[in-house]
């Protein structure tokens, strides 16, 4: 299927690895020109060069912390008028809510709610003016079902973004601008491995055993492939997806046992 977005411009956050990288690569394969951000210069430049070589699209790498005003300003200077915005940021560390103070909460809100809010604010009116815009927020399956009790910081902040996006999505839909959330379950990424390492330390079991149990819990018997996630992100950014907005799409291998 031709997604109809060749030649469009996308800003993809936290795109040097994991689900952000998979999303950027999927968009590039559709002919979308990219601006990608991440904090690590070397990994970001390596990803940019990898995507250029495979797809031939232009890729601008902007190293910096997208969760800061300076990081967002640098990204928007490089890509002031994106047609596509993929919001993504690493989550805060797991832990016990009794140990978190106000600074921990503010940091989580800055990273996993307010950064996306400010990027939407900075770009959505341009999308409205051009009569095309696709915004995808990468959040978490925890927004749908809080099954991991140690991820309260991440879940709380991402739930706030989910509520905000639901409101704004209905305001901009008539301009062919959509806002949707992608809620990943267990995908084979560095983030998942870090979570599993934490669970390993807490339980006294090996990381391999913890991961094997987690795979077995999933109806598919495996973790998700980031490429599967990237493909869904690209579709939500397509011309064909203009009637999908204000939705939160769960990619979890069927782990959430809902009937509807």
From TrEMBL:
Species of provenance: Azospirillum oleiclasticum
Domain of life, per lineage: Bacteria
Similarity comment text for this entry: Belongs to the short-chain dehydrogenases/reductases (SDR) family.
Protein name (Swiss-Prot/TrEMBL): SDR family oxidoreductase
Organism phylogeny: Bacteria, Pseudomonadati, Pseudomonadota, Alphaproteobacteria, Rhodospirillales
């Amino acid at each position: 299927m031709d997604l109809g977005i060749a030649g469009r411009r996308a800003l993809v956050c936290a795109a040097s690895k994991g689900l952000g990288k998979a999303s950027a690569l999927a968009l590039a394969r559709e002919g979308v020109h990219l601006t990608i951000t991440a904090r690590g210069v070397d990994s970001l430049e390596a990803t940019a060069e990898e995507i250029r070589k495979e797809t031939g699209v232009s890729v601008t790498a902007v190293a910096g912390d997208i969760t800061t005003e300076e990081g967002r300003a640098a990204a928007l200077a490089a890509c002031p008028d994106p047609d596509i915005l993929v919001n993504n940021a690493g989550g805060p560390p797991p832990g016990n809510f009794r140990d978190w103070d106000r600074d921990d909460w503010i940091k989580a809100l800055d990273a996993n709610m307010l950064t996306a809010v400010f990027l939407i604010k900075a770009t959505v009116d341009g999308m409205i003016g051009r009569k095309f815009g696709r915004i995808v927020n990468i959040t978490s399956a925890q927004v749908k079902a809080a099954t991991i009790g140690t991820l309260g910081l991440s879940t709380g902040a991402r739930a706030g973004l989910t509520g905000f996006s639901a409101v704004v999505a209905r305001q901009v839909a008539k301009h062919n601008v959509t806002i949707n959330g992608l809620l990943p379950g267990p995908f084979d990424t560095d983030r998942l491995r870090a979570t599993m390492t934490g669970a390993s330390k807490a339980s006294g079991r090996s990381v391999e055993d913890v991961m094997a149990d987690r795979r077995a819990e999933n109806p598919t018997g495996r973790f998700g492939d980031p490429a599967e996630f990237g493909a869904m992100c690209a579709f939500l950014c397509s011309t064909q997806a203009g009637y999908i907005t204000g939705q939160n799409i769960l990619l979890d291998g069927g782990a959430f046992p809902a009937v509807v």
